[in-house]
Amino acid sequence: MTTHVIDFIAEPQETSERRLADLPGRVVAGDPHHVTRMRHTSPDGTCLAGTWTSTPGKWHAFTDRDEFCFIVSGHVRLIAEDGHEQEFRTGDSFLIPNGFRGYWQVLETTTKHFVIRDYAPA
Question: For the (S)-ureidoglycine aminohydrolase cupin domain, which residue ranges apply (predicted)?
Answer without folding.
Answer: 42-114
